[in-house]
Amino acid sequence: MLPKFSYVRATSLDEAVRLLSSDDGARVCAGGSDLLGCLRDQVFECSRVVSLTGIDGLRGIARTRDGGVRIGALTTIADVAADPTINQSYPGLAQAAGELASPQLRNQGTIGGNICQKPRCWYYRGDFDCLRKGGTTCHAVAGESEFHCILGGAGCFVVHPSDTAPALVALQATVRIAGRRGTRSVPMEEFYVLPNQDVRRETVLEPHEIVTEIVLPRPAAGMRSSYHKVRARGAWDFALAGVALALQFSGNRVTAGRVVLSGAAPTPWRSREAEEAIIGKQLDAATAAAAGRAAMEDAVPLRRNGYKIPLFQGVIEEALLAIGRA
Amino acid sequence: MRKEPGSRYYVEGIEVPETPEPRSEQEQWTQTEYVGKPRPRVDAYERVSGSAVYPSDTYLPRMLYGAILRCPHPHAVVKGVDTSEAEKMPGVRTVISAFTPDDRATQPHSELIHTTLFSTRCRYEGETVAAVAAETPYQAWDAVRAIQVDYDVLPFVSDERRALDPDAPKVHDEGNQVAPTDTYERGDVAQGFAEADVVLEEIYRAECEIHTPMELHGCVAKWDGDSLTVWESTQGVYNIQAGLAGALGLPLSKVRVVGHYMGGGFGSKLQAGKYTIIAALLAKKAARPVKLTLTREETYLAVGNRPASNMRLKAGVKQDGTLTALEYVGSGASGGYQAGGTSLLDWLVRDLYTCPNVRTELTNIYVNAGPARPMRGPGHPQCAWALDQMMDALAEAIGMDPVELRLKNVPTVSQARGGSPYTTTGLKQCLEEGAAAFRWKETRAAIAREGNTNHLRRGVGMAGGLWAGGAGGPPSTVIIKLFSDGSVNLNMGASDIGTGTKTVMAMVAAEELSVDPDAIQIEHADTGTTQFATASGGSKTVPTEAPAVRAAALDVKRQLLDLAAGEMGVEASGLTLKDGKVVSIDDPSQEREITALRSLRRRRSITGVGYRGPNPQGKAVNPFAAQFCEVEVNTRTGEVKILRFLAAHDSGRVMNRLTYQNQVFGGITMGIGLAMTEARVLDGDQTGKMVNKNWHDYKLPTALDVPADMTCVPIELEDPEANSVGAKGLGEPATIPTAAAVANAVYHATGVRITNTPITPMRLAQALADARKGE
Fold it and tell me: Which domains can be identified in chain B, with CATH numbers?
């Protein structure tokens, strides 16, 4: 059962920001597919739901003047997955969007909501004392940690659930944010917060701030991107291990680019070790395997997620070999 | 027939039938017009359009909503319940708990243990502590949250593998073993192992699964004076009636249970829940109807599960494929109360393959978790997971084809029943015809030829199976009314749990009465208006009810032909029914529309009664199966794609080709859940609470986990001895071999044997990595 809350459908960004600022218990609602679950599970208090669906201009995909693309925060995941420009210029993002959740949720969920999701940790979502909820312990440490992180954990060991976020980090996207003090832009790579910085939040967003759009830069020449995801079942599931690639090629050789992991860490996790292992090289079997090993060098599994090390090695190898052939 | 005296004018001149004796077995159908053909469900429109009224769709005037406060701890003593705040909240009409005076009803967990409705010692997370009825569901839940409970939290044990350790916390003060270990023995296993050329031993485990039917457990309860009516989502209205009457001390006649539509049960809706009794008590106390539907989370905790099963199997085989010995040690988690933690967990070892020397032992163990309930083929899919993986390993060890090894050991009698013959056994045909249709040999040869060295590896696997039930049997009483306009009313007590029972029964009645099945109106699953039937479970609904329906239809037919004989001047034995007409067998030009029979028009209707006769003496009636599948495994990631499934089933006569196929595909889907995705996860090392009690974290297979290429091959053996329609059960056998077949295919593809369900990428990626290290 949902708790008691008031519902306000804002008609402008200013109004939405004002509604968020004037109530400590206010929460943003875009598609609602994550918020409603959080409310039902009583993950956090919520006295006011501020819907963004009445605000013009937050939806849609358009070319920017410098040849990039802007995606309104309320654009549905289904629209992102199907968009011809995104499929052509940023296939990694289209693949990530298409692999996400289920058709119903892709029709309902938005790209802005997707990158702002709350963690799916079952201790966080469930009826448990939890550091991230203001409690004293992280039950994942001595508990059922099969879906938890192997990199970047400190005190709290959630993984970030988004599939689109690692693709956006790899593609060097920027997030546009509106708030009480106007608007600001944050590179996707700097949008997320690790538990050792602040265990109570996942992003740099202030409570009064709203993601309004995501801007992708024009793809560099020779850019290829992809997203690979392994999950416990065929649909409606988050990544056990995923990898977003955005690599620049010169001939067969990788000249630059990013390797970003999902299902590995409390944030989308850029593996500089894997990037180093491939830049300047051709993606042959040995290089792909070496990159997989390099990505896992610093991994520290918990009691139940040791499988993630061979799994990440496997999916990274698979993704690199596939993009090398593309 | 007897003539009524003239004083009773309203029946004057009308022949009134006496209730007939149970009829002798009828001849089997040779040619059929309806039975066995593909026929869409009689209630398809209602189900798909949403106009079918399920218990969860039932709304009564002035109805209140109930909600239950459940213990959040796996083991705790309730020292006090303070409901004073809750009682004052808006909309709240009544609150009951172990500490309110009038709520002492007990619930039988077994013959030995009765507990009060609201426990003061909670033995599992989700035990009922208090309940509220309020004007709206939100008010009820707000009130539940306002109830203060003083718990004394006790140490718990979640894992049945540790529960018998001397220092394990005691679920019940007498100890954690539910009953003495159950043993079975035939022959001499030591001798059998001595005769074997190869002896293998392996430990298998099947994780706990939750039924999770689409429709939540729940009911609506309404009192009229001292009579209670309950609309319940159930597999058997008479079981609910008995449960309510027993708990509330009511005569059966005062309890009416209605269960027309229901959204799935799989064994978890065979009995009255505590929630059923709570709803009745709340309704009584509030003097208003009460609807009580559990939340999805509650159903994960408190209404049953397929228990976790641990199985150690040692098997001996001769080089020629003769099984010499099977030794099997199983244990299972009963949960917080006595339940079937090891029900039928050794049956396949005892009975599926020929083996002279068998020894099994089963130990049922208490843990602090929700009690088990039967789930689609209790014990069997788990036992198949062990036995049929072992058969695969034995076949490889002696260099024999897995199908050949099974064919070498097909029994003709039920070994576990002291050698009783089966009325029919199609195991051999299932194996042979299934393998041929699957192209088993050709596919294995092709995979071997291609070398299978790529990182994407193909494999095929198969498993055999039988179901210990599936015979059906008495009692069942069915009434059929033929109206003077030729339409038919079929009245039966059985529930249609989504399997197509109503459709099959309409087809059976239509077959005998030669009317269109659409002309048959079905009234069912209502203790107030239909006759006694056992619950729909155990794959016995068709073999139980179809013969009773046939008998009732034949009773109508006999009376109708008697009436027609008088009018047409032809012996009844020379008449038959065809397309709504009475027709002379010898002279088809002599015919009369049923609606033109004057005596029927005067009498308005003919009522026929049918009973389910006894099963054959000294013979076993069981369904058999063999399933085959092909997989592709990504050895880098441990991802398994099931490419195709083929299921050959001997369930006797096919009654409706469409619902037959539905059952088989549904069974395979559920078996894929066991094999690939499903497992209850308890936080056993810390809080003992379930962490995945929702449809996202508890992973049922999705459409993308089930192959589009599924084939159903019915092995239709004539079985005149089984019952008068020759059908055996199908629902459970359809899910029994599935998981083992998948595991065998994964092994064939990778050389890695996963002995613990489910075969997730997590488990397989690790196992493949370990195997690479070992190379």
Answer: 17-52+472-611 (3.30.365.10), 55-154+213-302 (3.30.365.10), 309-470+619-774 (3.30.365.10)
